[in-house]
Amino acid sequence: xxxxxxxxxxxxxxxxxxxxxxxxxxxxxxxxxxxxxxxxxxxxxxxxxxxxxxxxxxxxxxxxxxxxxxxxxxxxxxxxxxxxxxxxxxxxxxxxxxxxxxxxxxxxxxxxxxxxxxxxxxxxxxxxxxxxxxxxxxxxxxxxxxxxxxxxxxxxxxxxxxxxxxxxxxxxxxxxxxxxxxxxxxxxxxxxxxxxxxxxxxxxxxxxxxxxxxxxxxxxxxxxxxxxxxxxxxxxxxxxxxxxxxxxxxxxxxxxx
Amino acid sequence: xxxxxxxxxxxxxxxxxxxxxxxxxxxxxxxxxxxxxxxxxxxxxxxxxxxxxxxxxxxxxxxxxxxxxxxxxxxxxxxxxxxxxxxxxxxxxxxxxxxxxxxxxxxxxxxxxxxxxxxxxxxxxxxxxxxxxxxxxxxxxxxxxxxxxxxxxxxxxxxxxxxxxxxxxxxxxxxxxxxxxxxxxxxxxxxxxxxxxxxxxxxxxxxxxxxxxxxxxxxxxxxxxxxxxxxxxxxxxxxxxxxxxxxxxxxxxxxx
Amino acid sequence: xxxxxxxxxxxxxxxxxxxxxxxxxxxxxxxxxxxxxxxxxxxxxxxxxxxxxxxxxxxxxxxxxxxxxxxxxxxxxxxxxxxxxxxxxxxxxxxxxxxxxxxxxxxxxxxxxxxxxxxxxxxxxxxxxxxxxxxxxxxxxxxxxxxxxxxxxxxxxxxxxxxxxxxxxxxxxxxxxxxxxxxxxxxxxxxxxxxxxxxxxxxxxxxxxxxxxxxxxxxxxxxxxxxxxxxxxxxxxxxxx
Lengths: 257, 256, 241
Description:
The structure holds three protein chains of three kinds. Chain A is 86% helix and 0% strand. Chain A has eight helices and no strands. By secondary structure, chain B is mostly helical. The longest helix of chain B is centred in the N-terminal third of the chain and has 41 residues, at 40-80. Chains in contact: A-B, A-C. The interface between A and B is large, with 54 and 56 residues.
């Protein structure tokens, strides 16, 4: 299938993907209540998601925290002459915005491509057809466990990632700006609403990523080329979904304040 | 207990193998750049494809990123009632960090992943071997044009992205917080420095290099059919994302 | 038992099947022949409702398959066993789990019973005791035999075989066809076989259907096929002059 390159084709393609994802979402919800109980599959997905992404998240979020503190510190030193407030200002931003969003984008990258690649290669090797022949609906068998696992794991990983960023920031504050860790760890500015915003976002991301990536995988077509194309579509679509959801939830909470 | 050690040891070995392969590839790339033999048509074709392929997604991402940045900056601004500073805060954050970072991550997903998939499929269907038999060096013919176009395009897209983010941010600030677009624009042009902009551009170029190198490296070393291509794409975007964060840190620290 | 009426399918601008009409009587074996891309795999997938035709109707037994919902199709598929061109064995399940999978899904048999039937089928396909291995550890011929075992574990009355011997050496090919014969006897099954092994098909099938670029050029008994120059030209590989 040729890549859509005219504006009309791109918009049509995006809408089609969106519709397909919503349909898969509806089916998944149906199967959560009416499908087979397969706890083993959910545990396996939980383990895979956690295992595979953990180090990646720790590393990237660690660097994120360091970068954030560097920027904030340099600016604070330049403008205010002193960097003692950067912890207090940075922490809420980390909790409600950068932590959830960038962790989710990393998960979209790591797990999203993984899901699309696995499901995609099953499609092109006719394993998904075989599932349907054996009356195991692919959405029930493949997508549902991943969604349930993601619903739990993404918030957990977000907390882990945010913590990693926090500690990395603490190190930078101490080493580069000679800020005492206890000065840095100033949670006064952090409001309950920040935490709510962060959690809300991570749950939304946890639902969106496996649905978008899984739908992309199921629509793979045509051998190894099809798997590659589905994987690409998965990472782009799930990253975009994260950004859009971030904007919507962030704006919503902002208006609520 | 030994199994745990075996797993950790295996993981370390695997990472060293990957890092080793990437380093060798990077070395080969820069050596080739000393005396490049670039096919003009391939170069042009890649520039065109990379640009066209990523433009829409970058513009959309940047719009939303601008919106997000505006919302976040506005929270601080509301607290201190400093409406005039929104433009500056926004420009600073977007030009230096959010712009290149989000555009980079999106670019990696859109172009990097696709590149790995393409090269991977070529490897699996033995097209790369076919090139070698025709006495064409795949490094010069395939890789150089791709990496160069990614660096060029990332910098261009960063500029376009900045503009879109500006638009998205201005609109969001106006709608959500009631910041007058003129005030926004004035504060933006008044306080945002050229160095902020250039800082972002350097990052964008570096990200483009990382994405280009890693996506090609993983694509060219695919093993194992359709599933192997999927795995390579996975590894490639992970490596690119890690590289982006590491380079971001280094550049931030150095360019102060 | 199986009936296609005027079935047409288009895909991406190409007409894959064009007004195809034929049927297979209960207990009969039909051989589906034709060049690559002539639509053979598609016919199989249409019969089990994996794809919908653009026009025409398809019947399995008394039921019309066209337009059936996935839930309704489940009952139909319970009566069909399908051998896929590329084995379609589940990579992350053991051989034993792969073979027992359809029974587990149908929910009729206990785990002990499933294990017993799996062992019996494996013995039948001359692969005793490999329940704990994974598909990636097996050779092509072994995978095909496991696929056969999985396709027939639930004793289906209808067997659809999409190129069951592709890429296998002559001895293994012979074995596979003998096994198909055996399994067919067991259930007095109706069978549809798409294959390029024209020598075997002539011995094995009752009727032949010949597709050329999506159109049904010939449908009749093997004896009648042997009288038709066009069909024989394809089957013997000599081509029309």
